[in-house]
Amino acid sequence: MKKYFDMKPIVKKIKKDYQLAKDLYATGNADAMYLAGLIADDEKMTKKDLQTWVKNAVSNNINEYTVPWVAAEGQHGYELAIEWIDSKDPHVAAAGWSTLANLAALKPDNELNMASLKALLARVEKNIHQSPDRVRSTMNAFIISVGSYVVPLSADAIAAAKRIGVPATIDYIKKAKDRGSLGKKKKTVKC
User: Fold this and answer.
1) In what helix (H) or strand (E) does residue 131 lie, and over which residues does it extend?
2) Is the pTM of this model over 0.90?
3) What's the Cα-to-Cα distance from 2 to each of 12, 22, 30, 39, 177, rounded to whole Å?
4) CA distance readout (Å), 69 to 59, 66, 102, 119, 139
5) What are the start-end ranges of the E strands in 87-132?
């Protein structure tokens, strides 16, 4: 897979192109699909477009990064993420948890449903140990993201990580706090 810096001149030239992104994604080529996510006009992406993308994700990079980036930066991210995490298909469920992690990193706290995020932390706690590997990994990333970017729930995320037994997750959140970046949102989740 090409690295972002290899694609940067292309992205800079194209900027956003809804139809070209859909056409590139439809090729099934992982590099083209990745580029599609970088140039997608997120606001134009429909639920149907995103459902097609998650269904056709060909690799962990696509279903855990590309699709969640576009979903989180568009208008259907939260709704689809909540649907996707219930999927029996591990790659779709992983896309859902990754989308939720991206939303926590991107959206201002006043645009996030704190009660829902807190309930999702409890859900991770309850289900992480019996979840498939990639789902478990994205659930863990969700805890890190909530703990690092959503200040009102940082302590809840640390407590959940302690109960789950993942000290590395706690370390990630503490590093964000130590470097003074706790709660500093990202301008974009795409990279």
Assistant:
1) none
2) yes
3) 16, 19, 9, 15, 33
4) 15, 5, 7, 23, 16
5) none
3-state secondary structure of 59: coil
Identify which of 13, 28, 27, 22 has the alpha carbon closest to the alpha carbon of residue 42. 22
CA–CA dist 105, 107 (Å, integer): 6
122 CB-near residues (< 8 Å, 6+ apart): 160
Return the closest-CA partner of residue 77 out of 33, 111, 30, 124.
111
Neighbours of 12 (CB within 10 A): 8
Residue type present at position 158: I
Q: In the numeric block, which tokens belong to residue 5?
A: 């810096």
Q: Give the Cα separation of 64 and 93 in Å (integer).
A: 9
Mean pLDDT by runs of 10 across the 191 residues of the chain is: 69 94 96 94 98 95 96 97 98 98 97 97 98 97 98 97 94 95 95 83
